[in-house]
Write a structure and sequence with these properties.
With about 300 residues, the protein is of the alpha+beta class. It has one domain: Nucleoside Triphosphate Pyrophosphohydrolase (Alpha-Beta Complex), CATH 3.90.79.10. It is about 20% helix and about 30% strand. It has a nine-stranded mixed β-sheet with strand order 2-1-4-3-5-10-11-6-9, with helices on both faces. Strand 1 and strand 2 form a beta hairpin. Helix 6 crosses helix 8. It holds the Pfam family NUDIX. Acts as a decapping enzyme capable of hydrolyzing monomethylated capped RNAs (in vitro). Hydrolyzes monomethylated capped RNA after alpha and beta phosphates to form N(7)-methyl-GDP. Shows low activity towards unmethylated capped RNA.
């Protein structure tokens, strides 16, 4: 098992020493005794260990899992059927960057269809945290590698919006868990508008197949399409198609339009997945909308 190259999640309660979270253990469930899917925690990255703990109430960030989280519903029989090398992986740490422009848009990217995990799904730029990186450093590196946008740490004031417990496949109906992450969603503000940033986009076609600068109206529609729910979607008189930048095999961008329905699609309970905004991204975008309602101090 690879014990060296990955940053893993550690959990602790009360004054106990941190211990490594197990692959088949729900990290969210570790901090609640009543089955809730959201809990407030504090986090720190120390000596290549991402440590989660219950801090002072009101000073942490939300940690959430979907109600259909496979780890939450994993039976002892299912857990025993997971290959040993996967069981021994632990819980990986990822970071995703919500880049907010000066005119209050955020950058979303569609994962390349060739990727093994969540192909063709819309997410913010992001990826794994590497050894000896900070969360911000990892986020800025992934932002640059995936989109070509290069920001320096001194140019941004990062805010951790929340943590998402992500499992792939996302539902037991699609197979036993193969990957288990806690994703740190980090908000960064740019002093430039999306029109000023657009010429600097140089997406990696191996990872990104399309890009979108989403405004708050579109984001509200996206987050209203709650996965696992059948409530109506808040369309707010949005047009039936959305402008996106398609990424060609050589990395060139071409403007095109996509049906709004793609962005308000829900994760299907069974069968093949569909092109959609990921469940964790909806969680982060909802937190972003809330941040817009807070006046500058």
């Amino acid at each position: 098992m690879d014990k060296v190259r990955r940053i893993l999640v550690y959990v602790c309660k009360e004054r106990a020493a941190p211990r490594r979270a197990q692959f088949v253990q729900s990290v969210t469930g570790h901090f609640t005794d009543s089955g809730e899917d959201e809990v407030e925690v504090s986090c720190t990255l120390e000596k290549n260990q991402f440590i989660l703990y219950k801090g002072d109430r009101g000073r942490g960030v939300p940690l959430k899992r979907p109600a259909f989280c496979p780890i939450k519903h994993l039976s002892a029989t299912d857990a025993a059927a997971i290959p040993l090398d996967i069981q021994q992986r632990g819980v990986d740490v990822g970071v995703a960057i919500l880049l907010q422009t000066a005119n209050q848009r955020v950058l979303l990217t569609r994962r390349a269809k060739e990727l093994r995990i969540f192909p063709n799904v819309w997410v913010p730029p992001g990826g794994h945290v590497e050894l000896d990186e900070t969360l911000l450093g990892a986020g800025l590196r992934e932002l640059h590698e995936e989109t070509g946008l290069k920001l320096e740490p001194e140019q941004v004031s990062p805010t951790v919006l929340g943590l998402w417990e992500s499992v792939f496949p996302p539902m037991l109906s699609r197979g036993l868990p193969q990957r288990h992450h806690v994703v740190v969603y980090m908000l960064l503000h740019s002093s430039l508008t999306h029109l000023q940033l657009q010429p600097s986009l140089r997406p990696s076609p191996a990872e990104v197949s399309a890009c979108l600068w989403a405004d708050s109206r579109l984001v509200r529609a996206i987050v209203s399409a709650v996965d696992g729910d059948d409530a109506s979607v808040q369309l707010d008189d949005l047009p039936s198609s959305i402008s996106v930048s398609q990424v060609s095999a050589d990395g060139a961008l071409t403007e095109s339009s996509m049906p709004l329905a793609v962005f308000t699609s829900r994760a299907p309970a069974s069968g093949p997945d569909v092109e959609r905004v990921s469940t964790g991204t909806k969680f982060a975008l909802e937190l972003w909308l809330r941040s817009l309602d807070v006046p500058d101090l």
